[in-house]
Amino acid sequence: MANDDEVAARLGAVYPELPRGEQAIVRVLLDDYPFAALGSLRSLADRAKVSPPTASRLFARLGWSGFADFQAAVRAEGREHDRSRLREFVATAPDGPRRAAEQLRAGLDATIAAAGEPLLGRIAALLSQARGVWGMGGPLSELAADYLVRQLASLRPGVRRVPDGAAERARVLLDLGPGDLVVAYDFRRYSDTTARFVGAARARGTRLVLVTDAWESPLAAQAEVLLRLPRDAAGPIAPLTHEIAVTELILVAAVPLLTESPGRLENLDALTAELGQD
Question: 145, 155, 185, 271: which is deepest, by most CB within 10 A?
Fold first, then answer.
């Protein structure tokens, strides 16, 4: 249960002195740190098989004003961790490309490990069954959403990107309902505009697949399926490679469920050839 992070180290240090119920909470936190710290208090208590008041007592005992204060400390630690990595990256600029390649490889391995087959299977089933699929992202992650939309639209009908602009998004919302699916990419400096659209779509019964980072978008609680890229996938620059890689895995998982794909691809190729290129 060892961990180099200050919050985790604090939990580990006090563990032997805690009552059994609070020890159970600490075990869950350290066995899945930081992810276990980023959900709800009830879900954490359920995983530890204790009551929410038992969990609350732990955080009060350790000096936090409550669970929200504890989560804020975990998130702040993550931000400082990323700033430290950026400073280290800048300080070793002469070796930058080699180090960047090492980080990219490590992050990619961690991303692939996080996107297990059961999780990809659930996303693939939603992509194949939805009446319509809408992709969206924030700054930079919108490129991953665009990639999903471009590729998936070649495999099945009814796939579109959520447009920019309030008026355009409002028109989309008019027609959304329980048969539709939003796939949102939301990473730190989480997008307020994404949150507003997703909230309005969910109010209309639309389902949500969310791809986010280790610290979790505020939209995580609304997601039917949550695909969380691990901390290793975060680097000194935005990890677009990992977002694209996990999108590739999603698409590969969806292909066997899209029975119309072969004929649709043939028609697409024929129409492309007929229309020609400039």
Answer: 185
User: For residues 81 and 5, is the Cβ–Cβ distance under 8 A?
Assistant: yes
pLDDT one-digit tens code per residue, 50-86: 999 999 999 999 899 999 999 888 888 776 665 555 5
Distance CA 97, CA 143 (A): 23
Distance CA 246, CA 258 (A): 19
CA distances (Å), origin 98, targets 6, 92, 102, 106: 29, 10, 6, 12
DSSP lists the bridge partners of residue 207 as 181
Contacts of 32 (CB under 8 A, 6+ apart): none
Q: Which residues contact 250 (CB under 8 A, 6 or more apart)?
A: 115, 120, 123, 124, 127, 148, 227
pLDDT in tens, 147-172: 999 999 998 999 999 999 999 999 99
Identify which of 251, 257, 255, 261 has the alpha carbon closest to the alpha carbon of residue 156: 261
Instruction: Answer positive or negative: Cα dihedral of 117, 123, 126, 131.
Output: negative
Burial level of 175, CB count in 10 A (0-12/13-18/19+)?
A: exposed
Nearest CA among 145, 74, 103, 92 for reference residue 237: 103
